[in-house]
Amino acid sequence: MAPFLSKRDLRFQLFEVLDTAALPQRPRFADHSREVYEDVLNLAYNVADKYFASHARESDLNEPHVVDGKVQLLPAVGDAMRAFREAGFFSAHHDEELGGLQLPWVMTQAVQAHFQAANVGSSGYPFLTIGNANLQRVFASPEQQAKYMLPLVEGRWFGTMALSEPHAGSGLADITTTATPKDDGTYSISGSKMWISGGEHELAGNIVHLVLARIKGGAAGVKGISLFLVPRYRINDDGTPGESNNVVLAGLNHKMGYRGTTNTLLNFGEGGESVGELVGEAGQGLRQMFHMMNEARIGVGMGAVMLGYAGYLASLDYARERAQGRAASNKDPLSPAIAIIGHADVKRLLLRQKAFVEGGMALGLYASSLVDDLQTGPEEDRADTSLLLDLLTPIVKSWPSKYSQEALSDAIQVMGGAGYTRDYPVEMYYRDNRLNPIHEGTEGIQGNDLLGRKLTQAGGRGLEVLMSRIEADLQAAEGLDGLDEIRAALKTALEQNQSALKVILGKAVDLGPDLFLANANSALEMLGHTVVGWMWLRQAAAAARALPEAKGDDANFYHGKLQAARFFAIYELPRIEFHAQLLASADATTHEMQETWF
Ligand SMILES: Cc1cc2nc3c(=O)[nH]c(=O)nc-3n(C[C@H](O)[C@H](O)[C@H](O)COP(=O)(O)OP(=O)(O)OC[C@H]3O[C@@H](n4cnc5c(N)ncnc54)[C@H](O)[C@@H]3O)c2cc1C
Description:
alpha+beta; Butyryl-CoA Dehydrogenase, subunit A, domain 2; 5-stranded mixed beta barrel; 19 helices; flavoprotein; oxidoreductase activity, acting on the CH-CH group of donors; flavin adenine dinucleotide binding; Acyl-CoA_dh-like_C_dom
């Protein structure tokens, strides 16, 4: 079996492209070292391999189902959760006082990457729990943290994010779940929440739902939405789970992929009261959720990368083994067939995957390093870092979601008929990843966010910071061997971006919001490819610097990086021109299409 993750590339990205080994110079990480980070990565690989990869296909074939009102999962999922907890990964990012390792965010993401690649379905439970606890860490009161967050940090209870409703997915402003104030300061929650991942199971002693709801009699629209902690079981005075809180499982959704993560329709307040506690101030629910969006969306982007990456490794392994056909120049029918990796078209499919998944991984880890800079980097840089991270977030979420799907299609193509069967994992990864452009804000919503908000936020400062960082890396790479094509292609891309954005942003008022946003997807494509081109420049520069001293496998690794950077520059970056032109022309084809004409 092919490995689910490239240890070599992960270390290259963390320690040769990013300067993760320098983070222990910051006070919060003073107890860390490169050796500590190596130990953590090795532990993650071993746990992911032994307890997660081992039941990935079994989970895919045996969806969660309900028996006597209880959700049944494979026993292996419970074992995996125990191993994850014993390894200390539920609390890895948290303070030492909470039993955590105070791992930087970039290392937390690198750890999670192992589990996303090994078994994305089972990884859903801990990651939702970690996200829930992180939100509580910022917004919940100390009493609430002791009651609801600590058991999550310890991995004893699990968490969910209960935002969506049957009629309100992208448009969360329209949710109707209500919270009725009670005399004791708590709230009675009632309504239906749709698509709730990890909403019901027996893996943990309790499930803490973070629920968006409207306080009865409060403001209309977004201002009326608040966030509540609603446990599955009410909590006794001694902190143990008590009686049912009437959060009723109305049904399971049967999905195309991510089949190991149970996905539920939950009715709050059915057959009795569901009691919840308000988090922070009333009316701040969506703002609080958005505060956590950058981190959550980086997580989705990284999840997409890792599925694409696992597919790439599987198809690469297959291409080295599978013998078929001969070189076009070889006319001898008696000569042995060659491994398909020898055919230029198969190399094209493999290079395209490599360019997408390694470029996507570089982007996800770079964005994660910005989260660290924001929390522990120099104070004077934090305002710019925050704007850059805001700008990049829709891209970090949606670019890998889309291009890992393309990579996985190429992985199936490399493997021919075998890729289309369940004997190999790539068809499963393909189905799994199809979720990523949908959840945590669809691709359409990310395009609107990028063009409609992020590019103009703070007078366009985020874009200025991005452009100046790309220019600085272009300058730093001047004179390095083998980088001419990528530098030239990236410079052209920057000019195309700048002129297209100047035109479309300048026309925004005249066009009106509807026509202005009609081609928002092209902004996402144009800037997404540019940013990934930049990530390839950074990787190529690190490879070019290391190559003169490298030997054997290392030299091959760096040559591979340079060739994939060249591929991205020649095969992918020129695609930007189409999107730049479409955007600048404010083309109205989709906007003017009438519903009755379909
Ligand atoms: C497997 C799975 C797990 C999930 N887990 C969770 C979870 O744990 N918690 C949770 O709260 N939710 C969860 N979700 C819900 C998920 O976030 C929503 O499915 C998503 O936000 C889209 O909402 P929707 O399905 O209602 O689609 P819709 O909002 O109806 O969108 C349908 C289409 O219309 C487009 N569209 C909608 N509005 C606009 C607009 N203004 N401009 C342009 N295009 C638009 C969308 O881009 C999309 O292409 C999950 C969903 C799935 C499928």
